[in-house]
Amino acid sequence: MNIESTERTLDLTGHFLIAMPDMGDPVFSGTVTYLLVHDDDGALGVIINRPLEVELQEVFKAAQIETYEPDVGELPVYHGGPVTPEQGFILHRRRERSWSSAITNDELSLTTSRDILVDIASKNGPEEYLFCLGYSGWTKGQIEEELKTNAWLTVKADIDIIFSPNSEKYSQALKQLGIDQAVLSGQGGQA
């Protein structure tokens, strides 16, 4: 008799990965990462709370895209992760106009095409977005192993936190779990 496993794999698509305070990897220390996709092949997301000392106007200039609205270029560029850090990725709500998006889930899209940059520069782009350089990726089973070592906390993502302009995204994500950042310990236990 052949009995198939009905065990469901962990699916963190649309969740935040919140780095524990004692995370040894400086790329992710103190970060909140939004997972756009998590399936049997691995996971892909972008860090949402690590602004770089670069503004979007510098991206427009490098891409030779003219902007007519000065305030558009004043938004920060984020470090999305260590994978292809020279590539730009725009995270935006899926319900808005469709651009040539590389990856989408039920709520958000991650777009890499030049057309969305041109539209953002002319204020015809998505209403809310993050421009990230690079993305974060995990191989099959990697996140599950990191969760076993208490490297991350996870919670269903609040999309409003992603697009909020403030620097409190880490503490806001923790509050979704009922955790005060001031009392968060770097030590975790396993039952």
UniProtKB/TrEMBL annotation:
Pfam families: DUF179. Transmembrane segments: none annotated. SUPFAM superfamilies: VC0467-like (SSF143456). It comes from the Bacteria. InterPro entries: AlgH-like. Belongs to the UPF0301 (AlgH) family. PANTHER family: UNCHARACTERIZED PROTEIN YQGE (PTHR30327), UPF0301 PROTEIN YQGE (PTHR30327:SF1). This is UPF0301 protein ACFOND_14745.
